[in-house]
Amino acid sequence: EVDVAVAQPRDVTLWDSFTGRMAAPETVELRARVSGYIDKVAFAEGELVKQGDVLFVIDQRPYQARLQMARAEVARARSQVTLAAREAQRAEQLWERRAISREELEQRSAARSIAQAALASADAALDNAELELAYTEVKAPVSGRMGRAEITRGNLVTADTSLLATLVSVDPLYVYFESDQQTVEDNPHAEAASVPVRLGLGSGQDYPYQGRLDFVDNQFNASTGTLQYRAVIANPEGLFRPGQFARVQMPVAAARQAILIDQKAVLTDQDRRYVFVLGEGDLATVQPVTLGPAVDNLQVVHGLSADSPVLVSGLQNLRPGTQVQVRPGGEIVHQPADAQSGSNLQTRPAGSARIAQ
């Protein structure tokens, strides 16, 4: 007994497989912008943080004292400006009555300008003191996953030098992969944006995750002869991590009216491939084929005509010319799942069973 599948022509999109590596779109090395002793580490190593979360706190007391001094200096400078402005105003009134000299008028006007400049300098020093106090809290510049703390509580950090920790964004992630020159030349999507890609992890055969192509490099790598692609994949649950290997499938060509059959129907005899088809008198007949790419669970083959009844089961002891019996309900017709790719196997009654003589 055998099952028979009718070879069906279909327009399909052909996918090619690549090996890729995931990378974070944003990687931040957190460094202190002011010097001081670490007073608090406000995160758990390896946890997810949001943009703006406080990660480290540097001892704030010296910077709070500087801020108070800067505020006091601003208050003093404002008093000087008020005094110098009043003296300059009185000097102008006296000059109108010619009660003071021109030189004294200019001196008081210059003193007012100097006091105003001192106030501006004090305001700038106050802004800088406020900024340095704010820098004592090291916050997450992006959302992502924290690495380990390189410096712990009580240790001294130096401004713009000491590495505190590394933060990487995790949603979305980039997947970089490379294609050889021949594939690029044959690929109609080589320069297209938003081309869908499929991703899989580990050594499995499935590609359950969906992404899209968003970047194609502008030149080939002279050392490897390959062109780099980049895809974007959403990672809201944190399933993927930067640096992880991934298997990537990208559409590389389109085939019109390609003949597809079940992969298990293809047999091998040394260096040739063949299938059994149901011939006249219910005899198993050998039909040599040439393999194309796989599409889902089906195989593109050349050398087989459309609607050929291909044997897909009971092939272990089958020989050319063997008379076979089609199992009742065992005629299988390939039905396309959609316009691009994917297939369903739909079983329908085969009619009267064929009985071997």
Q: How would you describe this protein?
A:
- This protein has helices spanning 61-96, 102-135, 181-186, and strands spanning 2-6, 8-23, 27-31, 36-41, 48-49, 54-58, 137-139, 144-146, 156-157, 163-168, 173-180, 196-200, 209-216, 226-233, 245-262, 267-269, 272-278, 284-295, 298-302, 309-311, 326-336, 343-348.
- With 357 residues, the protein is α+β, with helices and mostly antiparallel strands.
- A hairpin with a 2-residue loop joins β16 and β17 (272-278).
- The longest helix is centred in the N-terminal third of the chain and has 36 residues, at 61-96.
- It starts with a strand and ends in a 9-residue tail after the last strand.
Low-confidence stretches: 335-357
Spatial order of strands in the largest sheet: 2-11-14-13-12-15
Strand fraction equals 35-45%
Counting DSSP H or I runs of 4 or more residues, the number of helices is 3
Q: How is the biggest beta sheet arranged? A: 6 strands, antiparallel, barrel
Q: What's the total number of strands? A: 22
Query: What is the terminal separation in angstroms?
Result: 13 Å
- SSE order, one letter for each helix or strand: EEEEEEHHEEEEEHEEEEEEEEEEE
